[in-house]
Design a protein that fits this description.
Blueprint (H helix, E strand, L loop, with lengths): L36 H10 L2 H12 L4 H12 L3 H7 L1 H5 L3 H4 L1 H4 L1 H37 L7 H20 L1 H26 L15 H20 L4 H5 L8 H30 L8 H8 L4 H31 L5 H22 L2 H30 L5 H4 L16 H17 L8 H5 L6 H17 L10
Helix pairs in contact: 1-10, 1-13, 2-11, 2-13, 2-17, 3-11, 3-13, 4-13, 4-17, 8-9, 8-15, 8-16, 8-17, 9-15, 9-16, 10-13, 10-15, 11-17, 15-16, 17-19, 17-21, 19-21
């Protein structure tokens, strides 16, 4: 895959035609936009029913309202990490899935992108399509269209098709469309929140108030579920890569972090309040049913429209960046065919989940397991960005010949791969879920320390090993 654009293939980043550029370097003459544009691009995917779901989970874990909100605020600080790494895109002029060659080596990065980048993309594609499938199917059931198999599958196919079209048109359409989508979503979800608030039990108290180890176990598990969202966005450089090279990294970090954190805090908190409105038993039928039952009839369709818009926003971004991940792995595909492949895989996984689980079950388990790879990967990326001070050379990143700067040891960066694997192991040892509890989690009474421990182990190992001869070759 060439990293340059041929003269007769001059690329124009516009909303009116499909984006043919993938991981190719972006020349300075083609750069455009402002850092503040990123706020709305990140806000649109995060005004989400998935936030309502994980907010409700905090109450189901036994937390009081104020405890749940405190956990949300604490987890929201992690949005600074996608912000910090985002500026590596404009610095290098290419996708984040190519920038990570600096961390893992030429061949090591193929391993990383194939197993880590794709896993993260598949989880979020399936979870958000799953949310729209369940809500859309339930709304259709209420008007008499009630096939438990083909209705949710049909909703999934329609929404995924629209999503992939947006991803095919790419960055230009995302830049033009997402501010309007973010505004529409804020209005829709604020209307929904307005109907939820009068029914909130502001005096809510957990049926069995938690204390001691049990309390810290619920707090830590809730934090892990929440942390998985910001830590998963290792694709933030892809969205920022068209910005002029002179754009201040602090501005990019602030716009990205605030765009993700503000709706994250607001609508996860709404999810907490929703759980006090309907009670724990209402969630046995699913959060989608509980929410629609709470709303007036005319608001239900409005909510479904909002969920579909959000699904398209989040998954178009995910499919867009995942298509470039396919190219970075080494497949000789242009970006548009790669996007279609991503869409087919994500749709298949979504249909499987539609037929086998509820939204709440799928979200909680998949988001907890996600941190095994996303936490260490994010920590390594942040350490590398800070070490290099955004000094990434796009031409050197594409030099995949033996002896190149990022060839390291036979194409593998031992510091990066070791930090990723051992950080992931440390995360798993501290993780506490319904189907898996690591020995450290068991020893502490199921207090889940997976995120801080995994990230600290990965960051410390990577920084330490880079100072040894193993880091020779890729040093700044």
């Amino acid at each position: 895959m060439s990293h340059t654009q041929a003269p007769d293939e001059l690329f124009v980043d516009t909303a009116s035609r499909p984006e043919t550029r993938g991981i190719e370097l972006i020349d300075d003459s083609e750069r455009h936009g402002r850092a503040r544009d990123l706020f709305f691009i990140w806000a649109a995917p995060n005004v989400s029913i998935l936030n309502l779901t994980i907010g409700a989970t905090l109450i189901l874990l036994g937390l009081e309202i104020w405890q749940a909100i405190a956990v949300i605020v604490a987890a929201s600080t992690l949005w600074i990490f996608p912000g910090v790494i985002a500026a590596s895109g404009p610095a290098a002029g290419t996708s984040g899935s190519v920038v990570t060659r600096a961390m893992y080596g030429i061949f090591g990065n193929r391993f990383f992108v194939a197993f880590v980048g794709w896993f993260i993309g598949a989880v979020f594609l399936s979870l958000t399509w799953l949310a729209s499938s369940f809500l859309g199917a339930d709304l259709l059931r209420r008007v008499g269209i009630d096939d438990p198999l083909w209705v949710p599958i049909g909703v999934t196919l329609v929404v995924s098709a629209v999503t992939i079209v947006v991803a095919i048109y790419g960055h230009g359409l995302i830049l033009r469309l997402y501010p309007a989508m973010a505004a529409a979503l804020f209005v829709i979800f604020l209307v929904v929140a307005g109907f939820i608030l009068p029914s909130v039990d502001w005096q809510y108290a957990a049926p069995a108030p938690l204390e001691g180890v049990a309390l810290w176990s619920s707090i830590s598990i809730g934090f892990t579920i929440l942390a998985s969202t910001p830590l998963s966005f290792i694709n933030s450089p892809d969205i920022a890569r068209y910005l002029p090279r002179s754009t201040k990294p602090t501005n990019i970090a602030a716009a990205t972090a605030l765009g993700g954190a503000v709706p994250f805090i607001v609508f996860t908190t709404v999810g907490v309040l929703l759980a006090t409105s309907v009670g724990p038993t209402a969630f046995d039928a699913g959060i989608d049913v509980a929410l629609l039952d709470l709303l007036p009839g005319w608001v239900g369709p409005l909510l479904v429209v909002g969920v579909v818009i959000n699904t398209i926003a989040l998954n178009a971004m995910t499919a867009y960046t995942s298509s470039m991940a396919l190219q970075a792995i080494g497949f000789r595909l242009r970006r548009i065919p790669a996007t279609i492949i991503v869409g087919v895989v994500g749709t298949a996984l979504t249909i499987y989940l539609v037929l086998s689980s509820s939204l709440l079950e799928a979200a909680n388990l998949m988001l907890q397991f996600l941190v095994i790879v996303s936490g260490p990967a994010m920590a390594i990326f942040v350490v590398d960005v800070l070490r290099r001070r955004y000094a990434y050379d796009g031409v050197e990143l594409f030099d995949d010949a033996p002896g190149g700067r990022f060839w390291y040891s036979g194409g593998w960066s031992i510091p990066g791969i070791a930090a990723l694997l051992l950080g992931g192991l440390a995360t798993a040892l501290c993780l506490a879920t319904e189907v898996w509890a690591g020995p450290i989690a068991e020893a502490t009474g199921y207090i889940d320390l997976s995120v801080p421990v995994g990230m600290l182990v990965a960051a410390a190992l990577y920084a330490g090993l880079q100072r040894t001869p193993l880091g020779k070759g890729g040093r700044p």
